[in-house]
């Protein structure tokens, strides 16, 4: 109690300047002391924020932490969902594979968090809550010991000054000796504590680089975690992508023709065959086919059904205008027109030839240049359109009318602008091209067509389509004679092309 009183008295005297204050720390130590409290505060705040980033429970091992992670719950939910949907569902397969991948990510995350806790969080907590507070505590204790020393020193000096005039010299001498012992003892304690505090501060200062290393370790640990997580994801991506690619039930509308044919192992696109087979059965005598618009809801439903590759289309047989509308939509939504961008200029050039015979021969040459998939589907479509035009007395759809409504969906320029603008720019040429090809379908494509090419539809095969002008004009097809070998036929075709177009277009190779 007396010691505390002496401290308070000494502190008051020092505050008002009536007593000297002993400085025990040099400038370097004072600078370290100023950084200590700030270091403790920022380390404490960083520790708290890092703990908040953890998704597992602090202090738990890898297995326990793994079970409690949100990603683990997501993984389990995906795998349960995949099991419920089964292998017949693509979503079910994807959920199973993704669930397994998420589970691996959860395991990587739990291991990462345990590493962070052990190598970074615990040392940071030790620094903020133990090491620095201990130094600061020792510094406060040193301040008390300095007050004790200053107090003892002041009392000793006061007694020394009073000794010469003391009435009882012997008693005063004894008191001076006692105060001298107290001062020496206080000084000894202060020096010991000062040495300890100075040592701790110097050690802290020398280890600042080591403490800073925790943040390097943090980024290194995060980098390693993300590398492992990325490797885990990349290892499963080929599998999940392969399942996606193997799944045949993909939308046909808006998909490139060759991609659709390859995916479904078909020769003729499903929407083309399905629509034509339905029209052959119920739409050949429907007036205004392809011209009269169908109901929007029925058309949307039919397109969705065709996108799902379903063969259950019985309800649409009674609405041939919806079927015709779906066929037009499919052709219009192809990323590239059925008659191709590459041959656009050739089609237009051939249609501009003034001589009728050479115009037909020019169109044949261009038609023969179509890619195999495009040519097969174009032939299939043309043979049907020619058959449809034979019923024009009833359905009012002559070759000219068919060309007007369907032509702009078969060929357009590869230019920016709306479909209406593109159609307006090429409609005259395209209509004339399609009309000629329909009128001379059997001349362009002499072989018969089995419209039920896939065998999906229960309808007897249809006979070949007669040429509307068969027997009236004798036109030979360049390079089509059966007696010519393939090389001779190819040379003949290019000879005809040179005669018709006046030479080879730049960039073309005979």
From TrEMBL:
PANTHER family: 3BP-1 RELATED RHOGAP, RHO GTPASE-ACTIVATING PROTEIN 17
Major subcellular site: other
Short name of any one Pfam family annotated for the protein: BAR
UniProt xrefs under InterPro entries: AH/BAR_dom_sf, BAR_dom, RHG17/44/SH3BP1-like, Rho_GTPase_activation_prot, RhoGAP_dom
Membrane-protein topology: Peripheral membrane protein
Localisation: Cell junction, Tight junction; Cytoplasm; Membrane
Chain ranges of the BAR domain: 14-253
One GO term (biological process): regulation of Rac protein signal transduction
The keyword Heme is assigned to this record: no
Function noted in UniProt: Rho GTPase-activating protein involved in the maintenance of tight junction by regulating the activity of CDC42, thereby playing a central role in apical polarity of epithelial cells. Specifically acts as a GTPase activator for the CDC42 GTPase by converting it to an inactive GDP-bound state. The complex formed with AMOT acts by regulating the uptake of polarity proteins at tight junctions, possibly by deciding whether tight junction transmembrane proteins are recycled back to the plasma membrane or sent elsewhere.
GO molecular function term, any single one: SH3 domain binding
Protein name: Rho GTPase-activating protein 17
Domain Rho-GAP residues, every copy: 255-445
Entry GO terms, CC: bicellular tight junction; cytosol; membrane
Chain positions covered by the region annotation Disordered: 468-491
Oligomer status and interactors: Component of a complex whose core is composed of ARHGAP17, AMOT, PALS1, PATJ and PARD3/PAR3. Interacts with NHERF1, FNBP1, TRIP10, CAPZA (CAPZA1, CAPZA2 or CAPZA3), CAPZB, CD2AP and SH3KBP1/CIN85.
Keyword list, A-Z: Cell junction, Coiled coil, Cytoplasm, GTPase activation, Membrane, Phosphoprotein, SH3-binding, Tight junction
Coiled coil: 169-196
